[in-house]
Amino acid sequence: MTQHSEHYILATGGKDVERLRLLHQVYGPGTEALFRRIGLRDGLRVAEIGCGSGNIACWVAEQVRPTGTVVAIDNSTAQIEQASRQAHARGLRNIEFQVADAYSPRLAEGSFDVAYCRLVLMHLTDPGKALSAMGRLVRPGGTVVCEEMDLGCWLCDPPAEAMRRFFELNDALGERRHEHFRLGASLHRLFRQAGLARPEVGTNFTLALRGEQKRLLGMTFQEFAPELVREGLASQSDVERIAGELMMLADDETTLFGFPLVVQVWATAG
Questions:
Q1: pLDDT for 148-168, tens place per residue?
Q2: Which of 11, 81, 135, 211 could form a disulfide with 15 if both were Cys (CB 3.0 to 4.6 A apart)?
Q3: What confidence tens digit (pLDDT) does each residue in 211-240 have?
Q4: Between the CA of residue 10 and those of 76, 130, 190, 228, what are the distances in Å?
Q5: What pLDDT does 13 receive?
């Protein structure tokens, strides 16, 4: 994000559409269940922070129409272009996309019923500041909702060295960049620190033995692998080997993947 000179380690725009599609296959059902749990319905006004290619924003817009609206922001122009294309293809007229920063959303404060983000705060050096900004967007009685990963919680059976290295290197890169790839477990505390008292919690954890979604981790690794090489955390030959092994594991129907735990936290604004 611009104010803090954030550097996103993954691809954006057209290069990231397929990865985000698979990510939504993995986590989308849990996200949709969460929205139903908090009472998403026709007529609500919803803000999404860090909308990516628009998968969640478009689904939410379908749930709140005809009288509800969605405003979704991302700090990447390329992501906003992809999200706008998806909304147009789905015939959605109750959704608006803007290029804006999670720290300074440039949206009217107190004008939304729900403010939401998924896998955004973990990529920021000051997630508390961004969460406080989200809290200011909702009206009194509105709901702030976040889903964030904890890279310390995952599963691979039988165990595989490539998978262990994937998470080890991802975690190391997050620490090097002062990001928070294990934020999920402490997200409830961040809510309290942001003045969002009495948070509720849930989980979004998916298992898979087969299917294209298992390729998500390999694709994710391929996107952040150049950063590993630039930071001196791994050699080019190392990342090529790990990437190949991850894809082999994804195609192996005898290997069970438990994708990184995503912790869901939501609270009512005072």
A1: 999 999 999 999 999 999 999
A2: 11
A3: 999 999 999 999 999 999 999 999 999 999
A4: 12, 19, 24, 12
A5: 47
23's enclosing H/E stretch is helix 17-38
pLDDT for 1 beyond 50: no
Q: What is the CA radius of gyration of the chain?
A: 18
64 alpha carbon, distance to own chain's centre: 21
Between CA 202 and CA 264 the distance in angstroms is: 5
Cα 162 from Cα 93, distance rounded (Å): 44
Query: Amino acid identity of 81?
Result: E
- First vs last Cα of the chain: how many Å apart? 27
- The 8-class DSSP code of residue 87 comes to H
pLDDT at 14 over 70: no
Strand, helix or coil for residue 49: strand
DSSP 140: E
For domain 2-150+178-205+260-268, say whether CATH 3.40.50.150 is its number.
yes
Q: Mean pLDDT across the stretch 99-106?
A: 95
* Residue 129 burial class via C-beta count within 10 angstroms: exposed 0-12, middle 13-18, buried 19 and up: middle
Show Cβ contacts of residue 83 under 8 Å, excluding neighbours closer than 6 positions: 51, 52, 53, 54, 57, 58, 72, 74, 97
Q: Report the alpha-carbon angle 214-218-220, nearest 5.
A: 105
Which residue type occupies 176?
Answer: R
- Give me the helix-helix angle, 55-64 and 77-89, nearest 10°: 40
Whether residue 6 is predicted with pLDDT greater than 70 in this model: the reply is: no
**Residue that has been written with the tokens 């990963």 in this structure:** 149
Residues β-bridged to residue 268: 143
- The partner residues of 14 in beta bridges, in order of sequence, read none
Residue in the block written with tokens 């991802």 = 170
Distance CA 26, CA 33 (A): 13
